[in-house]
Design a protein that fits this description.
Layout: E1 2-9, H1 14-27, E2 32-36, E3 41-46, H2 52-60, E4 65-73
Antiparallel strand pairs: 1-3, 1-4, 2-3
Length: 83
């Protein structure tokens, strides 16, 4: 699993977040995608890596610009069990 954090320019409201989320869901098989216009950020959780240029292209088609892409391994948070 991989966590991809995008810095996105142009999101102004909740509808903008939906447009970006829909573009990601429509074009890539992701586990989860969340966007925040106040943080200018989209976070994607995916089983497989996604090509940066393809992400930029598909999100760019919606009218928003991807400024940066950061990737890191994602570990699912589980429950803590105490003995």
């Amino acid at each position: 699993m991989i966590k991809i954090t995008l810095s996105i320019d142009g999101m102004m409201c909740g509808m903008c977040e939906s447009h970006v989320n829909d573009a990601v869901r429509k074009n890539f098989g992701v586990k989860k995608v969340t966007s925040s216009h106040s943080k200018n950020q989209t976070v994607i959780i995916s089983e497989n890596d996604i090509d940066d240029s393809l992400l930029r292209e598909k999100i760019g088609q919606t009218g928003y610009e991807v400024k940066s892409v950061t990737k890191e391994p994602y570990k699912k948070k589980g429950f803590l069990f105490f003995k």
